[in-house]
Amino acid sequence: MGISASVACAVHCAVLPLLGSSLPIFGISIINNSSFEFFMILLAFAIGSLALIHGYRKHHRNLMPIFLFSAGMLLLFAKQIWHERQFLILPFAVIVIVAGHLHNFRLSRVAGAGTKKPKITSYKLFPISKT
Length: 131
Ligand SMILES: [Zn+2]
Fold this sequence. Notes:
Number of domains: 1
Structural class: mainly alpha
Strand content: under 5%
Oligomer: single chain
Radius of gyration: 16 Å
Low-confidence stretches: 116-121
Bound molecules: zinc ion
Mean pLDDT: 82
């Protein structure tokens, strides 16, 4: 169980966030196809949620990454509504989504993802958050 669990963990913690945060960039309408963009947003949402829920449940129990991610997803939907301003909104959406994944990753490292002993003993980006 140990090896398979850590492989699943590596996928959840490292691979999925990379995929999830790069997808919205492919969603830019080069071919001006909004159903394709919408599909990319849903895919980024599904993949990102998997990674963040894994991090939350298995590592840190901190809701801040999910909060950041949700904000980024709202921005992506806003981009679809105000489509003529998408190039203004998209960078912010991607930054917030990447920030959420990074925060999740760092919190997971603190909690000792993949290892038994935590490498960093304390890390808090937002000291107000509980637990
Ligand atoms: Zn993990």
